[in-house]
Design goal:
The structure holds two protein chains of two kinds.
Chain A (H helix, E strand, L loop, with lengths): L2 H11 L4 E2 L8 E4 L5 H10 L5 E9 L5 E9 L4 E10 L4 E3 L8 H12 L2 E3 L33
Parallel strand pairs in A: 2-5, 6-7
Antiparallel strand pairs in A: 1-2, 3-4, 4-5
Chain B lengths: L17 E6 L11 E7 L2 E8 L7 H6 L6 H5 L7 H16 L5 H30 L7 H22 L8 E2 L2 E2 L7 H24 L2 H7 L7 H7 L4 H5 L6 H4 L20 H24 L23 E9 L2 E9 L5 E7 L1 H6 L2 H4 L5 H11 L3 H5 L1
Helix pairs in contact in B: 3-4, 4-5, 4-11, 4-14, 5-6, 6-11, 11-14
The chains are: A alpha/beta, B alpha+beta.
Chain lengths: ~150, ~375
């Protein structure tokens, strides 16, 4: 499978998906609405055979809301797939892809910890890097770097 | 497909009581601060809950407050055992967005330092892992001290090049910070030859030892399917039969100029991961020799000297840059907004993904095997917690 073939397959299966034009060194980048997030992950694993789960994270676009990003790779054909979904302003719920990729378990916990995204369907969604009594989600743009956290500061 | 955690593992047990054992966070075999809450049935582990975050400094938030010139030296604090490669991932991401060329000489210097770093990191791994296995190696401290002795030589090389032994700040956007001092290449060649000759010595010490073999063979099996699903990388992935090395699959920084082999083992156990790393020692040394032979003349940076830290500006855009670190794919997902600081930076620590495999492979093993498995994963907690 080549990146061009991957783009065609995705656009056939997900007509609503936004696929970024090819650029040198860039992976196949696909943005889908949150309700197709799970289906895209399933399609990527089973049909595109992008089975290597690289990472999952999020970006806070301030007024435009949160965006969840995940990267998969096809290790034999060396095709990278960057999946994105915009949750929309004020929304912090996203379907979990843990049932598809076991690697998403810790990554989604981290995104929950840092951004407060509730991954629906995650079997064990709790903080991973910060302590359970931590207040707030540090990677949100609204969280100031010098936010005091008693008793430390 | 189930997630292994206490209370969730289905086991058949006949009347024996379950015991919860706390391993860490200050356990000598944890190689840092890692807490594993083990659920035991007799000596057999049936569930693992991994607790991480003790070293969390929120590098991702920190990077949003530091300029492209400042952050690389902080990046080395993620994986402090292989600091060169962490810096590398960050500057590569910035260079990719800004389409910044890196002079050939700087590319070669990056290759030399990252390969020496891989050797230094693997030496520390081998020494500490054998120290963990302890009793099986007649105390285990012998090989540890041998490895530290060799690693010291590499740290000396780095010290004479950068001025620092562990955390360097050697890479910068557009090139590297320092050129080789006089006589460095000669010392480097001598060191490389010396280490090369000693690798064989370690192999004989370990592989001729039946206790070592008994403790690592068939222990901690990771299937190819699990490896890809969790996203483990580097020697772990190659130990599970996947021929994937970023230096070959996605060559960067002139890696396609060099001849080297990518070791792959199919057994998927601790011994397979050990074998992969032992071959990688020699391959890395081979790359260093080739890079020293072919080192081109020329500038070491494509950018003029900095007058202020805010001078390096990267245009709007995003990139995911990855390098093959000692522990696998070290990735930096960077979003730039045109200012002197990133809008968002996501650090894909190889150790984080590698460690996430532990709850899947440990159940079913004895407590003593947990130590062997954890060592074979080679986690660095600065990178896990970031």
């Amino acid at each position: 499978m080549t990146p061009a073939q991957a783009r065609t397959l995705v656009s056939e299966r997900f007509p609503a998906a936004q696929i970024e034009p090819p650029a040198e060194g860039a992976p196949v980048t696909v943005t889908v609405p949150p309700d197709q997030w799970f289906a895209l992950a399933r399609f990527a694993k089973d049909d595109l055979r992008c089975r290597f789960f690289s990472f999952l994270s999020a970006v806070d676009w301030k007024d435009q809301g949160l965006e969840v990003v995940a990267r998969l790779d096809h290790l034999d054909d060396r095709v990278g797939l960057m999946m994105k979904t915009k949750l929309g302003p004020g929304v912090s719920a996203c379907p979990s892809i843990t049932p598809i990729f076991r690697g998403a378990d810790w990554m989604e916990r981290e995104a929950y910890d840092m951004f407060g995204i509730r991954f629906e369907g995650h079997p064990d969604l709790r903080r991973i890097l910060l302590t359970d009594d931590w207040e707030g989600h540090p990677l949100l743009k609204s969280y100031a770097v010098d936010t005091p956290h008693p008793p430390y500061r | 497909m189930s997630i292994a955690a206490p209370g969730r593992v289905e086991v058949d047990y006949a009347g024996s009581e379950r015991l919860t054992m706390n391993m860490g966070p200050q356990h000598p075999s944890a190689h840092g601060v890692f807490r594993a809450i083990l659920t035991l049935e007799g000596e057999t582990v049936v569930g693992v809950d991994a607790v991480i975050g003790y070293l969390h400094r929120c590098h991702e938030k920190l990077s949003e407050t530091l300029t492209y010139a400042q952050y690389p030296s902080i990046a080395s604090k993620t994986d402090y055992v292989a600091a060169m490669t962490s810096e590398f991932a960050y500057v590569r991401a910035a260079e990719q967005i800004g389409k910044i060329e890196v002079p050939k000489r700087a590319q070669y210097l990056r290759v030399i330092t990252s390969e020496l770093q891989r050797v230094a990191s693997h030496l520390l791994w081998l020494g500490t892992w054998c120290l963990d296995l302890g009793g099986a190696l007649g105390g285990g401290a012998t090989i540890f001290l041998y490895c530290i002795r060799e690693r010291e030589l590499i740290l000396d090389l780095f010290e004479s090049l950068v001025g620092a032994r562990l955390l360097y700040g050697f890479y910068q956007v557009g090139g590297v910070r320092y050129d080789l001092p006089p006589g460095w290449a000669k010392t480097c060649r001598e060191t490389v030859d010396l280490i090369d000759s000693r690798i064989t010595e370690y192999e004989r010490m370990l592989e001729d030892n039946p206790f070592f073999m008994a403790r690592v063979q068939g222990v901690g099996y990771i299937s190819r399917e699990l490896a890809e699903d969790v996203g483990i990388a580097g020697p772990l992935l190659r130990g599970s039969g996947v021929n994937f090395d970023l230096r070959r699959a996605d060559p960067y920084s002139s890696y396609d100029d060099f001849q080297f082999a990518v070791p792959v083992e199919t057994a998927g156990d601790c011994f397979a991961r050990y074998r992969v790393r032992m071959v990688e020692f020699r391959e890395s040394l081979k790359i260093v020799r080739q890079a020293l032979d072919g080192l081109p003349e020329g500038p070491i940076s494509s950018r003029p000297g900095l007058k202020s830290v805010a001078q390096t500006r990267i245009p709007k855009g995003e990139a995911y840059a990855r390098v093959e670190g000692a522990r696998g794919e070290v990735g930096c997902y960077l979003i730039a907004d045109g200012s002197a600081k990133p809008y968002r930076m996501k650090w894909r620590g190889a150790s984080f993904s590698n460690l996430a495999v532990l709850p899947h492979i440990i159940p079913g093993h004895k407590v003593a095997d947990v130590v062997a498995i954890m060592g074979s994963v080679d986690p660095v907690f600065g990178e896990v917690d970031r």
